[in-house]
């Protein structure tokens, strides 16, 4: 299990954006970075800085993956035929923790990782406790019967701040979700603009 070493809202403030669209994000009140130097005048970013920021934002959105994990996913996206940026988004969205979050079974992507780790999820009837598990089209993801009434699940289902995307078919009465298809960038309901093309440029030069 990857240890998250920084508070999740620090990622928001470092980026200056509410990257998960959460109403409690401090960016809604303070749009400058954390720390004693956070209110310094923002300098124009270089091309490298812009690309690095795009990479850090996308990586942070999926639960602040480690650089090693993220680079491995990128390398796989590069090997697949087609647009590398689109492939990267597709691979990230096929992570089991991302699917659990998109299905509104949990309130945050961080909670999704923990929820999977604790064995609350099945894929096609088999318990899976690996957040990075790669879901395939047609897979049925479900919350185990003994976990359906957990407070975290009931809270997430009631959230009005985000909708279930159309590449998932979700039945909240049964707590099941079917992964219909791998999404493209335009299908993913990011609260802020993600720029995988800049991520591709970053790794191409570094």
TrEMBL record:
<keyword id="KW-0687">Ribonucleoprotein</keyword>
<comment type="subunit">
    <text>Part of the 30S ribosomal subunit. Contacts protein S5. The interaction surface between S4 and S5 is involved in control of translational fidelity.</text>
</comment>
<comment type="function">
    <text>With S5 and S12 plays an important role in translational accuracy.</text>
</comment>
<feature type="region of interest" description="Disordered">
    <location>
        <begin position="15"/>
        <end position="46"/>
    </location>
</feature>
<dbReference type="InterPro" id="IPR001912">
    <property type="entry name" value="Ribosomal_uS4_N"/>
</dbReference>
<dbReference type="InterPro" id="IPR005709">
    <property type="entry name" value="Ribosomal_uS4_bac-type"/>
</dbReference>
<feature type="domain" description="RNA-binding S4">
    <location>
        <begin position="94"/>
        <end position="158"/>
    </location>
</feature>
<keyword id="KW-0689">Ribosomal protein</keyword>
<dbReference type="Pfam" id="PF00163">
    <property type="entry name" value="Ribosomal_S4"/>
</dbReference>
<keyword id="KW-0694">RNA-binding</keyword>
<comment type="function">
    <text>One of the primary rRNA binding proteins, it binds directly to 16S rRNA where it nucleates assembly of the body of the 30S subunit.</text>
</comment>
<dbReference type="InterPro" id="IPR022801">
    <property type="entry name" value="Ribosomal_uS4"/>
</dbReference>
<dbReference type="InterPro" id="IPR002942">
    <property type="entry name" value="S4_RNA-bd"/>
</dbReference>
<protein>
    <recommendedName>
        <fullName>Small ribosomal subunit protein uS4</fullName>
    </recommendedName>
</protein>
<dbReference type="InterPro" id="IPR018079">
    <property type="entry name" value="Ribosomal_uS4_CS"/>
</dbReference>
<dbReference type="InterPro" id="IPR036986">
    <property type="entry name" value="S4_RNA-bd_sf"/>
</dbReference>
<feature type="domain" description="Small ribosomal subunit protein uS4 N-terminal">
    <location>
        <begin position="3"/>
        <end position="93"/>
    </location>
</feature>
<dbReference type="Pfam" id="PF01479">
    <property type="entry name" value="S4"/>
</dbReference>
<comment type="similarity">
    <text>Belongs to the universal ribosomal protein uS4 family.</text>
</comment>
<dbReference type="GO" id="GO:0005840">
    <property type="term" value="C:ribosome"/>
</dbReference>
<keyword id="KW-0699">rRNA-binding</keyword>
